[in-house]
Amino acid sequence: MLYFEKIGFLEIMNKTNIGPILASTQCRYKIPLTYPDHVTVGAKVENMEKDRFVMKYAVLSHKHQKIAASGEGVLVTFDYQNSIKALIPDEIRERIIDLEKTVSRGVHK
């Protein structure tokens, strides 16, 4: 959700009723997480099509300093008012591309 907030997807969704909906997800657990531990979750868009994108995820255990889980989700852009798929708004597509460029360079704004 923080990723969507960062690119303004929730703001666009409130104005247009077009936003992401989860089509599928998978997760692979690598090590068990136990209390007390803190985790950092990272997400990145790996692939975009006209009406969907694939997000990759990683969960880092601070206690073990290792990736505890990884996964991916397929998100479809959805018109919630008409209950149909929609194209990714150009503004959102550009924001995703811009954000991914900053992360790939190691710069986090």
The rough form would be described as elongated
**Helical amount:** 25-40%
List unreliable stretches of 5+ residues. Answer: none
Could you give the order of the helices and strands?
HHEEEEEH
What portion of the residues fall into strands of 2 or more residues?
A: 35-45%
CA(first)-CA(last) distance: 17 Å
- Our count of helices gives 3
**Largest sheet geometry:** 5 strands, antiparallel
Mean pLDDT across the residues is 93
Radius of gyration: 15 Å
Report the strand count. Answer: 5
Label the structural class.
Answer: alpha+beta
What does this structure look like?
There is one protein chain. The protein is α+β, with helices and mostly antiparallel strands and 109 residues long. It has three helices and five strands, in the order ααβββββα. Strands 1, 2, 3, 4 and 5 form a five-stranded antiparallel β-sheet that branches. It is elongated and about 45 Å long.
Summarize the structure.
The chain has 109 residues and is an alpha+beta fold. It has helices spanning 2-6, 9-16, 90-104, and strands spanning 18-29, 39-48, 52-61, 66-79, 84-85.
Question: Which helices and strands, and how do they pair?
Answer:
Elements (H helix, E strand, L loop, with lengths): L1 H5 L2 H8 L1 E12 L9 E10 L3 E10 L4 E14 L4 E2 L4 H15 L5
Antiparallel strand pairs: 1-4, 2-3, 3-4, 4-5
